[in-house]
Amino acid sequence: MFMSFHSIFTSPLSSKLAFCRLAPVLFVPIAFGGLRLSQTLCTSTNIQRRYMQPPEAKRVCADNMVPKIGTHNGTFHCDEVFACFLLRQLSEYKDAEIVRTRDPAVLATCDVVVDVGGEFDPKKHRYDHHQRVPTCNHTRMPKCRAALCYILLRSFVETFSSLCPEKPWGTRLSSAGLVYLHFGRRVLEEITQLKPDDRRLEALYDKLYENFVEEVDAVDNGISQYDGEARYAVSSTLSARVGHLNPRWNSKSQDTEEGFKQAMKMVGAEFLDRMEFYQNAWLPARAVVEGAVQMRTQVDPSGEVIVLEQGGCPWKEHLFFLEKELKVETPIKFVLYPDQSGQWRVQCVPAGLHTFQNSLHGEGRILAEASLSLLEEWRGVRDEALSTLSGIPGCVFVHASGFIGGNRTQQGALEMARRTLQAAAKARGEGKETQANGS
């Protein structure tokens, strides 16, 4: 027997419910009456198919009736400000009236409601994250097949990953994240004019969540970026700046309408600026790095060196992603590129995106062998002394840590990488021989 949550509360079964005053937990014995709850697994594909389309009319209205976006009144926060901005980027909501209220009767007249109303239901376009939701007491899921279990009312805990299992992000969603999850692709389609099947669209969608929206979700839900005490305060985040647009506690006027409009304009401008950068600078860099990865064996037969013909191209993040996507078996060790003076740099690929260290276990990059630094005897040596020491003409420098070096020519920089690879291979061979003799 299948029953909706509404049916639970309005059926004779409701007499079996027990509430705890100290913790608002609702217990519903699943075995009572054979109750089972249904759940639909949600992926980004069916979200787009089922929920990202323009809302169906909930009432008979004139063709010229202005659509309404509902959110709460009073002090505003970055999440609902951003959610409202996103919705207004869609053709069906571009002229929408934003109704700020907590009156359920008024909210019921709105086409879409965010951050208020105590309901998350994409089919009805309700995107709140403050409510408590029925959850199985031991599987933490809305559905359970155990012979005996209880449904608890727990805080809303949906994440991008829980709604779209193919995505990695585990930060609890705010109204910003909920709206972005369900409408973000369409927003990006309309702004960028990219087609739905263009893989660049998905790359932008992921990048903007990870580097813009997730922060809003975390701040609104009170999730710290790290464990332990902060060494210093960061007071200039987007959420903080939105907060400063609310009336001061001792201002004569506590009207928040004008501040809300300013906040939406500020948040929207920053989102569009970030999106423009990712579309016109970050995505083209990925194409450059992908081309270099595809051509790597023409640079060196080992496939462990790539060449970027244009200096300044951001490559680390793209390289780590492409190694996985293209299933590169032998990790790339060196990247060559020209500097502003026309000379060439040889840079070691680090173990992770946010480190210079070349270790065996990288950030999402488990190497078959240790990443390499340029030869130790070269480090800190410059110019002719380095050329004499290495036997490579045109050397300019090697950093004291060995993570980067320079040469006047591309060929010289490539030779610095090759010599390092050869020395590493020789050291591995000697190590294996010693180990075999010792055993």
Describe the protein in words.
The chain has 2 domains: 5-57 and 66-223 and 257-269, no CATH class; 298-438, no CATH class. The termini are far apart. Residues 1-43, 56-62 and 359-370 have low confidence and may be disordered. By secondary structure, it is of the alpha/beta class. It is built from 13 helices and 14 strands. The longest helix is centred in the middle third of the chain and has 38 residues, at 257-294. The protein has helices at 5-10, 44-51, 78-88, 104-107, 160-163, 175-192, 199-220, 238-243, 257-294, 296-299, 316-325, 383-390, 410-438; strands spanning 18-19, 26-27, 68-71, 97-100, 112-114, 120-121, 126-127, 132-136, 151-155, 305-307, 334-338, 344-348, 395-398, 404-407. Helix 3 crosses helix 9 (257-294), helix 6 (175-192) runs antiparallel to helix 7 (199-220) and helix 7 (199-220) packs across helix 9 (257-294). InterPro entries: MYG1_exonuclease. Belongs to the MYG1 family.
Short description:
This protein has 439 residues and is α/β, with parallel strands linked by helices. Helix content is 38%, strand content 11%. It has a five-stranded mixed β-sheet with strand order 4-3-5-7-6. Strands 10-11-12-14-13 form a five-stranded mixed β-sheet. A two-stranded antiparallel ribbon has the order 1-2.
Q: Given the helix and strand composition, which structural class is it?
A: alpha/beta
The domain count comes to 2
Subunit arrangement of the protein: single chain
Percent of residues in beta strands: 5-15%
User: Which sequence of SSEs, written as H and E, runs from N to C?
Assistant: HEEHEHEHEEEEEHHHHHHEHEEHEEH
The main sheet comes to:
5 strands, mixed
